[in-house]
Design goal:
Radius of gyration: 19 Å
Number of strands: 7
Structural class: alpha+beta
Oligomer: single chain
Low-confidence stretches: 1-5, 208-212
CATH superfamily of the largest domain: Ribosomal protein L30/S12
Mean pLDDT: 90
Largest sheet: 4 strands, mixed
Distance between the termini: 43 Å
Number of helices: 8
CATH topology of the largest domain: 60s Ribosomal Protein L30, Chain: A
Length: 212
């Protein structure tokens, strides 16, 4: 069955309803009208029906709600809840946590400063993670390891480091698998962790932190 014209046009022209700029699926978040005609984020871009796109940053989602842009974009009388940006934040955080669980099972996510240091120095680490409240001394030692690896291998940039969660949020999302220091390792699952971490960090950088 051929896609409807609206869906086909949407796939060919992803334009943010706030900025009016086109982008890739990685740059934008798709929204659809869910049950009760309430606007819902479609992070996996697989829900049926007409959708619209918003730049994947908190400020853009908040502005789309404030200016009532969803009804016009979806060509329907829909409700965009004031907490929509918080919902997106929570979904992105849970998506990252889910990918971390998968990477751990695949042996592509390690925790503990000793294992992280070894992963960095061996070239296995593709990203480093710290809890927001991790001790400065521990963070500094791993920063030194990242810089030493970059210099030793004549790289242009260091292995990226993220601090996406505080301890309370980590415990809520990961339970007994919460960490102070961790590293994503090379592999499909590890790369998935980095991709989702980038999405969450970018979204949160685009406005006030979500309610936690």
């Amino acid at each position: 069955m051929e896609p409807a014209r609206d869906e086909e046009a949407e796939m060919n022209e992803r334009t943010c309803i706030v900025t009016r700029q086109t982008g890739t699926p990685e740059d934008l978040i798709r929204f659809v009208a869910g049950p009760g005609d309430v606007v819902f984020p479609d992070l996996k871009r697989e829900l049926p029906g007409r959708g619209c796109w918003v730049t994947a940053e908190r400020w853009a989602v908040a502005q789309a709600v404030e200016k009532k842009l969803f009804s016009r974009a979806l060509k329907a009388k829909v409700t965009a809840e004031p907490e929509l940006a918080d919902m997106v934040d929570g979904l992105l955080a849970r998506q990252l946590a889910g990918m971390i669980h998968m990477a751990r099972k695949a042996g592509e996510f390690v925790t503990g400063s000793t294992k992280v240091d070894l992963a960095i120095r061996s070239g296995q680490a593709i990203a480093v993670f710290h809890a927001e409240d991790a001790a400065d001394d521990g963070v500094r030692k791993l920063d030194q390891a990242r810089k030493a690896f970059m210099l030793a291998n004549e790289l242009d940039t260091e292995i990226p480091a993220f601090r996406p969660f505080g301890t309370e949020e980590l415990i809520a999302l990961l339970g007994e698998n919460a960490f102070k220091h961790a590293a994503a390792l090379a592999g499909k699952a590890g790369e998935g962790v980095v991709k989702r971490a980038n999405m969450l960090v970018r979204f949160r950088a685009g406005g006030p932190s979500a309610k936690r």
